[in-house]
Amino acid sequence: MSFFDKIFGGKQEETESKSFWNLIESEKDLEEAIKKSHSGKVAIFKHSTSCFISKTVLRNFEKEIAEAEETGATFYFLDLLAHRDISNKIAEDFGIRHESPQLIVIENGNEINNASHQDITLSQITL
């Protein structure tokens, strides 16, 4: 691991070690997340692995999740650089502007809330 990767984080994100994340790497994964929203809230975190702000927001959000007793949501993670086409599909299908980082909360197949940058908090899921 290079010096800069140690400071800013490399391409391999810590999300792999976080057991609450489900990865969205295909349209099928997105369809499964939307289907899951019919039995409970789904939160999709759209993250740019090359952006320091996105990494900071992600770490803060993960800390909130880890400290929460129960969230009542299923969490999905989308790497924007690897899967920009899926991010674009989310924006188009739900009629929301693409941002990064971005949290989109889905319930019963519909977007019920979304936030970006420092507005991303666990409270966005419970609103």
From TrEMBL:
Lineage: superkingdom:
Bacteria
Give one Pfam hit by family name: BrxC
Q: Which residues cross the membrane?
A: none
Gene3D superfamilies assigned: Glutaredoxin
Residue runs in coiled coils: none
For this entry, the protein name equals Bacillithiol system redox-active protein YtxJ
Top-level taxonomy: Bacteria, Pseudomonadati, Bacteroidota, Flavobacteriia, Flavobacteriales
By which gene is this protein encoded? Answer: ytxJ
